[in-house]
Each structure stands twice: as C-alpha cells, then as structure tokens.
Design brief:
The chain is mainly alpha-helical and 304 residues long. It is 58% helix and 3% strand. It is built from 13 helices and two strands. The N and C termini lie far apart (71 Å).
Amino acid sequence: MSTAVRLEAFLEMMSAERGASDNTLAAYRRDLEDAAAFLGGRLAEAGSDDIRAFLDDVARRGFAPTSQARKLSSLRQFFRFLYAEGLRTDDPTGTVDAPRKERALPRTMREDAVARLIARAETEKREAGDGPSYLAACRLHALTETLYATGLRVSELVALPLTVALRTERFFIVRGKGGKERVVPLSHGARAALGEWVAARAAQPEWEENPHLFPASSESGHLPRQVFARELKALAGRAGVPAAKVSPHVLRHAFASHLLQNGADLRAVQQLLGHSDISTTQIYTHVLENRLAELVGRHHPLAD
C-alpha cells in the first residue's frame, strides 16, 4: 500500500471517526504531503531520523515553532493510525521532541472598543435605507452582535442554522469541533439584531429554501468566514478602531477576556468557548492576573 493510499485512509478515518472539519483535514493533508515530498514519497516507511530531518528542513524554511509543532502533531496522528491498523509495528515520532515554543497571549480588545464597533454597525444599519446596502449592514450588525455575545468560532458563526434565530430562548445549542455540542448564550442585543436580520432575510425569495442563518451563493451555502473577516476589519476602520487589531478571532478572545474580567468562572468560560481541555482556556488567566493586581493596587492599604 503506497503512502498516498495510506494518507487517504487516514484522512477518511479522521473525518468519519473523529469528526474532523474540512479545515482540519486540509491542514493534515498539507502537512503530510509536505513531509512526503521531502522524503521522496517514503513517508509511510520513515524512521525517527527522517522525521527529525524533515523538521529541521521546516525550521530552515522559516516556519514558526508553532507551525513546526503542528506538523509534528500531524505526523504523530498519522503514524498512530498506521500502528493501530497494523500497517507499522512502531511509531517513529515517539522519540522526536516537539520544538519549544512560547505561548503567546491572545490578542483582545477593550470593552469600549467593542462597544464602538457594535454601535457603528447599528448606526450604519439605521442609516442604510433600503435595498442591498441595508441588507449588508443588517447582516454585519447581526454577525458582530452575535459573535461578541456568544464567543463562537467564526466557522461556527457563519454556518449557524436559521432555526437558531427563530427561537425565543436566551440560549441555543451549537455543534463545534469534533461534533461536540455546547450551550451558548444570546444577549438581548444579539437577539434583537438577529430578529431584524431574519426579517430582512425573509424578503429575499432566493434564500427561502436555504437552511443557513447567513446564506450566500457559495459552495457551502453560507457566508464564507473570509468575507465576514474582511467586512469586520472595514467596520473597525469606520468605527475608529485600528483595523489591523480586529478579526473575528479577536472578538472571540474579547468575549472570554471580558467575562473573566467581570468575575466569570474559568470553567464556565471553558464550556462557553468549547475548549475540551481547560489548559487551553488558562491562557486567559493573564486577564485575571491584571485584574487582581489592579484590585490590590486600588484597595490594599500599603499599595502606595
């Protein structure tokens, strides 16, 4: 069985048994095909020295430690699959050390900056008039309000079903990474913005049969996440917020950071973000540390 055939079998398993998303599968494919090309198509037969040589080459090509670690993770998953299927008797990645990397703090936004962003989106909707300009402004306002209210991943947000906005509850269930379901909140502002968007959407006969909340004439049937990211940056510029520092992922970070900053429990934030491991959520503890330092500085009698 060739490396190419084994690679396809691995990707099929990750999709069928692990529920890996299309983006995850594409990343695995890129990493493994990169390694296979370096090893002249002998990836399935590679030894530990081959894997180290490949990672050295990745480093020489200027990839960041995070990218090097991701490629090694892809290789580990692949060889574990081969071992589990009886296609190899060993795992050559077992003795390969991951590149050391510093965990960067998540980029976030101040509460007043988020407020300006959302206020600008609402103002543009009110001033848009009728027609396509109103439809675009209404959608952008609904997306921005909902993202900050829920902390969804952008891929989860743009793929939401229409049924989410047709409910009256303050919470809904979203299916995230690996097919795992979690409950996320909807603020009053987000529900109001979604209500206006649904009314505007209903006036478009071409979307009548589309099941997505944010439909589009794309292959997926919903708004591409890249389109929303581009529109969000443009909105930030118009709101007087540095566009380079704004993205859907930054708004997700802001959701988590502001919850912790205002007293939320770390475990609750973990559940809301859909993190399977709390160590992923602990990157936000810098927010708690800053808050505690501020409290001590403000209230401790010997702080000055």
